[in-house]
Amino acid sequence: MNEFTVGLGDLGNTSIQNVETLFAQANGALGVRSSLPILDPDSNPGSFLNAYYESHDIIYGENAYGYAKKHETMVKLFDMRSIDIEILGDDNLKLQKEDISLDMAKGILNEEYIYSTIDGEKIKIELESFASHFDRNVYAQKIIITALNFSGQVSINKSVKHIPAKKDEDFDPRVKEASVNLIVEENKYTTPNSNLSFFVNFDKINENLEINEGESVTFKQIYQISRENKFTNPTYDHLKEKQIEIFNRFWESSDIEIEGDERLQKGIRFNLYHLFNSAGRDGHSSFGAKGLTGEGYEGHYFWDTEMYLLPFFVYTQPEIAKSLLTYRTNILDKARDRAEELGFKGALFAWRTIDGHETSAYYPAGTAQLHINADIAYAFELYEKVTGDSEFIEKSADVIFETARFWYSYGFKSERGFEIHEVTGPDEYTALVNNNYYTNKMAQNNLNYACKLAKRMNVNIEEAAKWEEASNEMYLGYDIERGITKQDDSFLDKQVWDFENTPKENYPLLLHYHPMTIYKYQVLKQADTILAHMLYDVSNEQMERDFDFYEPLTTHDSSLSKAIYGVVASKIGRSDVAYKFFKEAATMDLEDQQGNSSHGIHAANMGGSWLGLLYGFAGLNINNGEVIIHNNLPKEIKSLKFTLTINGEKREILIK
Ligand code: BGC
């Protein structure tokens, strides 16, 4: 069971803020960063409610028609973790020792700290905490304080501390200040602009105690945060019992056992643990790029959910998958309005959003990533293939039809076929191009799925014929001389980025070069054509040639990259390369490989590490309800055991 715990020792030398992210507790509705009980100046404490955001106008130096109008920023709520403690009247306590152990089997965080006054009086603080999966309004903490080497007065105060707004200081487009001055009326808190409220209910601790040396005092504290102002009366022990039951069931249906590498075993469980914790469950929230663990990317939902996270949920927790998809059906009207605003038919989903409106202020790497439409359709299709839940799909069919309608109206027929111009593919280091291969391939599938669904449901028959034609005639660029799939019409004509003379500290490139400089060259931020190959097979030789061409041009500056190259490396039989990529994906946040885990977990990569194991090493695919498995295990992994839920039935699979 050892691999079910993650402790400080598993992280190596890391920052306070990384620790806060990695041990954050969340339940899909509420997330709490695991900040220190007595704050350090470097701390960044906070808690978040999924889909709870503040909006403000986007100010452009030069505006243009149709640009996104408002930011939506997930709000950083209270610090529910810090305790005000005085020992013999002294509140200047220094941290002497800390020990953290995350019990992933139970969904509970255990911590132990020793603090001391300047005069040497020491206390031990033991914490046991969880974000309840039984009652998603609750964050619960048990606090035990022990006087280690003195007897006397200890005062202990704990409530909620609002985190006041501060100014943006950093130049890093991937993080934005999330604190907001909320309007407070009794226990009701409201954002000034988006006008969203929540209510808080909690037991305050306010004690002045005489404690003898060696003695302890214990508190059980329950914070309830409700959007509906509905509170129950839960007890700590009952919630804890339920938490353990729920995590037992979670691991029963989702665990992966890896024989041969303990570090990877721990890494993958850590990733699955976070995936389970941060996924929205109510059909009105989704999965932010950083989950509920940090303020990076403003808590926005991207294509990450559909392409990187959904497969894990579809195959192991179909109910969660369904609720993530329901979120898309609930914002369909906004996507319809957006398509209309841009002058096209159907619906265009926002590249990044919480409420459904486009919030990307930089359209070349935002709105222009039209592929999100097809990614969403792909996820619905995968859900249907794996769960057999056609009833849900038919109920949600408008998502598929409206996205197909968009492609049909945005693209056009030429002598070469059906073309899609002026888009950005997944690779954000190449923008506004014609016929991005990934986009065209995904749109082709979107049109095809819409057509099949229309025929099956006997609706939109005339349109379906057009969708079919466009799908059949989709233009997919190929360089015959070089035998390479063209990422887009112009990519192969560009100069290659000067990798040799790019110093290490200039990565990620996006923080050191103007976009125009980056777009001019053959250089990738992340998997693009190779992602299409992961989803839609081409011949082995083709995949190899494309892999060998695109991989050396890829910086992997985006965390969404390595896992995908890993899967395709498995497919082409390069298990050593696959293993290397998988290893990096499995431990990316544990080791802070991207250098910004402090902003929150890299959720898509966590889902990607599941893809690496299942799509890569286990060669998982599904065809007409039949599960296909290939043993692509690298030599380092002796066996792989996992459970999938197919058509509502659990299946255990062992590969060795
Ligand atoms: C990636 C996008 C991704 C976003 C949020 C960016 O760095 O390029 O593909 O959707 O991060 O994770």
From TrEMBL:
Enumerate the UniProt keywords alphabetically: Glycosyltransferase, Transferase
Give start and end of each Glycoside hydrolase family 65 central catalytic domain. Answer: 269-610
InterPro entries xref list? 6-hairpin_glycosidase_sf (IPR008928), 6hp_glycosidase-like_sf (IPR012341), Gal_mutarotase_sf_dom (IPR011013), GH65_N (IPR037018), Glyco_hydro_65_M (IPR005195), Glyco_hydro_65_N (IPR005196), Malt_Pase/Glycosyl_Hdrlase (IPR017045)
* One GO term (biological process): carbohydrate metabolic process
**What Pfam families is this protein classified in?**
Glyco_hydro_65m, Glyco_hydro_65N
Catalytic residues at E428
| UniProt family annotation | Belongs to the glycosyl hydrolase 65 family.
- Which Gene3D superfamilies does the annotation name? 1.50.10.10, Glycoside hydrolase, family 65, N-terminal domain, Maltose phosphorylase, domain 3
Tagged with keyword Transferase:
yes
Q: Which residues form the Glycoside hydrolase family 65 N-terminal domain?
A: 18-191
This one is known as Glycosyl hydrolase family 65
Entry annotated with the keyword Glycosyltransferase: yes
Q: Which GO terms describe its molecular function?
A: carbohydrate binding; glycosyltransferase activity; hydrolase activity, hydrolyzing O-glycosyl compounds
**Residues the entry annotates as binding substrate:** W303, D304, K525, Q526
